[in-house]
Amino acid sequence: MLERASTCLESGGRHLLQCPKRGLRSRRMLHSSFWHHGAIDLSLPAWWASPSIPGRLSGDDQSRGCDGLLLDFLYPEKTLALMQTITKYGADSLKARRKQSSRANAVRQFSTTPWQRQRIGSDVLDPEEHAREQSLEREMQQHLYRSTANAALEALLASDEQNKQELAMRLYDAIPESGATSQLRADLLEYVESAPAKSYASRVVSIFESLPEDDRRASSYRIATSAYLALGMVGSSVQLYETAASRNISGDLGVDMILERTVKDNQWELCLRVYRGFVNSRSTETIRSYAFYQKSDRRENESMLAWRKAAKIPYLRGNLESFLFHVKQFRHELADSPKSWKAVRHFTFGLAAEAMEQILTRGPIDEQFVWDFFVSFFEALRALEIPAQSLYEYSIRRILHIERYRLYNNQDSIWHGLYRMYWRQCRTKELPGRPSKELYRQLILQAGHLGSESHVARFLKDLRRFYPDEPIPDHTLEYLVRFYAQHGQADIFHELFDEFAHSYESRLDLRILMLLPFTYARRVDVQGAERQFRRITEEFSKTPDIACWNVLLLAYARDDDLDGALACFNRILSAGCTPDTYTYGPMLELCSARGDIEAFETIYSRAEQLGIDVRTDGWARSGYVQACLRTDDIEGAEATARAMLKSHRGGMLRDKAGALGSSLTHVWNMLIQHYALEKDVMTCRRLYREMIDNEIPLDTWTYASLMRGLIEVSQTNAAFKILRSTMRMNNLQVHAFHYTIVMTGFLREGQYPLAEWAYKHMLTKKIPQTAASRLASLEVLGALEMRSLRQKRDYDPRTRLKEVEEALREVLVTDYKSEVADRQPHHSMQIDSRRNVPEGYFGFIIMLYGTRRAFDICKELFEAATIARQEEVDYRPPITLLTAMMEVHLKAKEYDEVAKCWELAKQQADKLVKTVEQVVQPPPPQPEFDSLLDPAVMQSFEDARIAKNRRQVLTMPTRIYIRSLAAQEDPNALGRAQRAIRSLLTSGFVLDNMTWNDFIQMQARRGAVVDAFSTCEMYLMPNFPGWRDLNPFYIRKTIPGFNWMEVRHTDITQRTIMPRYKTLVVLARVYAQIRRDEADGIGYNPHRGDWDREILERMCPMTVNAIITMPRTGDKWQQRILKGML
User: Fold this and answer.
1) Which residue intervals correspond to the PPR repeats (predicted)?
2) Rg, C-alpha atoms of the chain
């Protein structure tokens, strides 16, 4: 190839470089052999390639040298060296002739006149070079003054002095030819290697050729190769490498430098020739099966390979495309022999790996461009029939090690797309073999990191398909066991756990066994967790450690069972285990969820006394913020949050994973959510700005809290825009909780089509469902179907809600208990919503059928809901299901069933509102009070030690129970209602506004006039706003239930306690009747010595004044209740 190149260059040069006009012939002509590439065949030593070799001239010739010739790039190296030796062209004469050439281009100037090089002086060199030259001369003289040049050079090479290459070369030049040993020359080459290759290229070649072949080291070959490449002698460097490889010299011979030059110049024949020799020189352990390219950490082993120089070539993708085109053109030649084709495959893998590295890690990244590159590249390999299995393995695993691909992204993942291509070709046998187990391990880890159960299940299925008769590797199987335990998938967990116990019995320790109860703790199944906990001792003969006990304690905490949690804590102490951070964590969570600040502080202090570092635990301290919010101590919550921020800035705050910041995000999310529920959007915005200003990371739950604030102020469309656009632009993962917020908001606003759109949007995106999203979906379907029946005027109670029931059946056939294992916030305001599965679903559907008076269907659904829990010991339906059935029984006039459900609801409520103090020191029996007006009743209410944030848990059951008593003709019903309300108040429970008004109306209608007026005066009238001034020219929107009152819709909240308009009308009728009776001489009270009217005016002035000043509008309530009294 090199021989043919000379002829081509000669003929091409004659045609391309001919002058437009015939020039004058020189008086002296060189022989034609000098212009011919046959000069390569001249028996000239290699050092002739240098224009000047200091130290090898004698006498005055030491100062002689040659400058470069005009158009020197046209001459072969050895021809150029010979011409520079015999042609005496100086720098000054060259400048002069260039000036002449500019005046007369037609005349070619050529001369061999000898010249004398000017002495080095300040008039030629700049001051810095002159000073450097003088310093070097002085240092040279000092070394030669103390010792010989040979000894000085040996001492310099043995020292650690750097950047002394020029001095070493001059010392070597001072050594006589016979005085330089082979070892000295080899050491000198190693020392000069760190210097720029162009600086000493010719001298390095001279020294290398003076070395005997037996004394040449691998480093000698490498520096010589570098020198040849610096001189542009690529062919010589290739021959030198092949010579070294044929002698089986081990070490780094400089193949990376040759490949860098040949790849850059797209000299693919030389590349393959060199790489073929490199592959043949390596052991089978190094190259076999392309194991090198299958490792994503190949950078650690790059010294064993040839690509470290070529990897730095810019735009390597273009070189890769050029190589693939070369392979396509000459495939028939490259595939002649297996060895040649093997070298092509190896070279393709190496070059492609480096090109991938540049595309994935350098410069601005365009993900679409990256994807297009991978698709086109693997399609090209497929067309060339080059097996791409190893490159698929490498590229996918390399991508998974890049941080930006490990994070969640709204776009389709490149690594997942490559895996689908790889999987498809393996399934169709286009590629030999199958994906490796290590690849599946990394894919499963990535999918689990993103929390994608569907992808993990897909990869597990593929792993079993490709390896049907082989066990899953231990590390992969252990991760799968932990993953499904975290997600509460009991069936899959037990299958994988049994496989692990059978295949890797020796590794079955307590770290694995603790996952047995942990799975059921995530499912909020205390009895299942207890059964699995006993298996550790009974079946596996292991003694549970503190981690196992912590898991059991977590099960009670997630079930919100304070009694069980305290009993489990005592069992831990009895077992001799020392509590740690994860022991006190569930206890602190129980206290913060109940708003029990005293118990929280006590347990927190106890943990500090035991030396547990809870002060730097961000999640433990965030529990105190939650406890303050549950007791409406917003100032204390914000003060605690700012103290945590200060600790974070001081590096004294960490979360469970040991990192900084995520616990602060959780705290600010809770604050934003609290204000969102209070409809304080401005404060939510302030807290959001604080997060940005203080560099607190925003997460997906931050946006969820902002969305809750928007739906509270009827801005659900804006919340939906955050879900669809803002979170997508910020690459934040959307969860079922976000869709639950949006669907609930649309239902509140009556925008049923938009609620349906959000529901279908969630299904289209295949968002994993949770218990809250399931319930919200049922609400959407129920609202749509109920509206459809109303439009059809179908009022038949036997009509089934088909879509709702079908959705419920789909839920029941799945593992619905695993849906409560999610780590998402809970949107429902119900206290027992976490374990209210599937009873909550049944309760909602019962409520729907109850409004249609389909009582038989409701009873059928109630029985179906309880069947699923029959295996549980001491099972009691949750309050939500009991409330729905109480509503049904009330409409069916089954008052005894209402009373039974009421008793069950009270028992459940007592369990939910219990605090640590009540468990440690049970309260004494509550005294009986004769009247609700006794001040001791309110004192007992204030002193009650129940969870303050759960006092409203019985509001709905109480309302239904009072209405059932009011509907009965039993004369004792009023007494039972009074005792029920008195018992609730003395126990610390609160009643909502509807319950108070229903109870007072019941009193008034049953003749307890004084009690009705007194109760209204004491509990309702303090918040009465008064009647508004009526003006026929100003029409205001009336708030339902508060007609003609001076109130705005912002004044009415769930905590508002004030008389409703209907209650005052009922009391007005009673008061009017008392006045009529007084006019007829009826109503004198001898015990009190006064008339009933005067007694009421004296005891209840605010109520009587509200009745007297009530506007007489003749509305429907006045006409219906005050008929005949006006």
Assistant:
1) 545-579
2) 45
Alpha helices in 678-770 (DSSP H): 681-693, 700-712, 716-721, 727-729, 736-749, 752-764
State how far the Cα of 281 lies from the Cα of 835, in Å rounded to an integer: 67
Residue with the two structure tokens 């004192």? 939
- 479-495 pLDDT, tens digit per residue, is 999 999 999 999 999 99
State the virtual CA torsion across 181, 185, 191, 197 in degrees, nearest 10.
170
Helix ranges restricted to H, 797-838: 802-812
Tell me which amino acid residue 1011 is.
Answer: D
Side-chain-side CA neighbours of residue 1054 (13 Å): 10
Q: Taking Cα atoms as reference points, which of 118, 131, 104 lies closest to residue 24?
A: 104
Angle subtended at Cα 781 by Cα 710 and Cα 952, rounded to the nearest 5 degrees: 55
Q: For residues 225 and 205, is the Cβ–Cβ distance under 8 A?
A: no
Quick: pLDDT tens for 273-291. Answer: 888 888 777 654 344 434 4
pTM: 0.81
- Collapsing DSSP to helix, strand or coil, 43 comes out as coil
Tell me which of 702 and 94 has the higher pLDDT. 702
Q: Say what angle helices 453-466 and 437-449 make with each other, to 10 degrees.
A: 170
Yes or no: say if 289 and 298 are a contact pair by the CB < 8 Å rule: no
pLDDT exceeds 80 at position 22: no
Amino acid at 610: L
CA distance 842 to 835: 13
Quick one: average pLDDT of 161-190?
Answer: 81
603 pLDDT exceeds 70?
Answer: yes
Tell me the mean pLDDT in the region 584-589.
93
Chain segment 561-586, per-residue pLDDT in tens: 999 999 999 999 999 999 999 999 99
Given a contact cutoff of 8 angstroms between Cβ atoms, the answer to whether 546 and 583 are in contact is: yes
Q: Any idea what the Cα angle at residue 346 is, between residues 341 and 350, rounded to 5°?
A: 145
The residue with tokens 């929107």 is: 1037
Q: Which of 767, 742, 778, 737 is nearest to 757 (CA)?
A: 742
Token pair 């809970």 is found at 826
Taking phi over 0 as left and psi of -120 to 50 as alpha, with beta for the rest, 1083 belongs to left
Give me the DSSP letters along 178-201. Answer: GG--HHHHHHHHHHHTTS-TTTSH
Q: Are 286 and 304 in contact (CB under 8 A)?
A: yes
Rounded to an integer, what distance in angstroms lies between the CA atom of residue 1004 and that of residue 335? 104
From CA 621, how far away is CA 90, in angstroms rounded?
Answer: 84
- Element housing 308 (H / E): none
Report the Cα 595 to chain-centroid distance in Å: 31
Amino acid at the residue 1062: K
CA 343 – CA 341 distance, rounded (Å): 5
- Strand pairing category for 1090-1091 and 1084-1085: antiparallel
Q: What is the mean pLDDT of the chain?
A: 83
Confidence at 302, pLDDT banded by 50, 70, 90: very low
Q: What are phi and psi of 819, to 5 degrees?
A: -75, -15
Question: 180: phi > 0 → left, psi -120 to 50 → alpha, else beta; which?
Answer: beta
Q: Is the pLDDT of residue 455 over 80?
A: yes
Count CA atoms closer than 13 A to 121's CA, side-chain side.
4
Interatomic CA distance for residues 153 and 175, integer angstroms: 9
> What is the mean predicted confidence (pLDDT) over 416-421?
95
- Of residues 173 and 121, more confidence is placed in 173
Average of pLDDT values for 389-397?
93
The DSSP line for 89-135 is: --HHHHHHHHHHHHH-TTSPP-------PPPP-TTTS-HHHHHHHHH
Query: How many Cβ atoms from other residues are within 10 Å of residue 510's Cβ?
Result: 16
CA angle 190, 196, 202 (to 5 degrees): 75
Any idea of the CA torsion for 251, 254, 255, 257, to the nearest 10 degrees? 150
More confident residue, 412 or 550: 550
Segment 1041-1066 shows an average pLDDT of 89
